[in-house]
From TrEMBL:
Domain V-type proton ATPase subunit S1/VOA1 transmembrane, chain residue ranges per copy: 117-154
Transmembrane region(s): 118-141
Gene Ontology CC annotations of this record: bounding membrane of organelle; cytoplasmic vesicle membrane; endomembrane system; proton-transporting V-type ATPase complex
Pfam families: Ac45-VOA1_TM, VAS1_LD
UniProt keyword annotations, A-Z: Membrane, Transmembrane, Transmembrane helix
Name the record gives this protein: VAS1L protein
Alphabetical list of Gene3D superfamilies matching this protein: 2.40.160.110
GO terms for MF: ATPase activator activity
Membrane topology term: Single-pass membrane protein
Length: 198
């Protein structure tokens, strides 16, 4: 598949050639196409060759990616074919890249297989947060299951109340006046107590 720039200024003689291959995979029971190599030609001579990695899709689909590049900051899906090649002097980046080499109908792309990973940072963060919430919920259910009922395990036992023994005949001798900040109060001298159970 060749992309020619025509009569666009300095790009008049530039051609970008995509070498596509098809293979049948028994595991998926269908044909897949792969971008095997990308070549840059200028005035009919090959200037640079890049090997493509991870650019593949089912033959009935198209392939789409936000960035297909030879630069590391874009995950470098295009790798120079040789260290001695002129590819080292070229930097190639396609933005909003979509390609389909086979089974094209009515000049439109088929459904696109995207290059986005199933485990992007946002998805991983969502999975971690879901796991934390599940752990909190499991702990709360564990605490509810092991919560003891007050009706079964608590017997209503009141502690004995102690009251000072009252004597009608010796009230004058039993109490002694206390003076505390102008208020009159009494203290019992006899420390005898009686027990009353409720």
């Amino acid at each position: 598949l060749s992309l020619k720039f025509g009569d666009i200024g300095n790009l008049k003689g530039l051609v970008i050639r995509f070498l596509l291959t098809t293979s049948y995979y028994q595991l998926s029971v269908q044909n897949w196409f792969s971008l095997h190599r990308l070549q840059l030609l200028y005035n009919h001579s090959v200037q640079a060759t890049f090997n493509a990695t991870r650019i593949h899709a089912p033959a009935t689909y198209s392939y789409h990616c936000d960035h297909v590049s030879s630069l590391q900051r874009y995950d470098a899906l295009l790798i120079p074919s040789s260290a001695n090649d002129l590819s080292q002097l070229w930097e190639v980046t396609f933005i909003d890249f979509q390609i389909q080499g086979f089974n094209i109908q009515e000049g439109h792309f088929a459904y696109a297989k995207d290059c986005a990973s199933f485990f992007s940072p946002a998805i991983l963060m969502g999975l971690v947060m879901s796991l934390i919430l599940l752990l909190v919920l499991a702990y709360a259910l564990h605490m509810l299951i092991h919560l003891k009922s007050l009706d079964r395990h608590y017997e209503c036992k009141a502690s004995p109340a102690y009251f000072a023994e009252m004597k009608d005949n010796d009230m004058g001798d039993e109490k002694e006046p206390l003076r505390n900040s102008g208020n009159e109060s009494y203290e019992l001298r006899n420390k005898q107590f009686g027990k009353i159970y409720i």
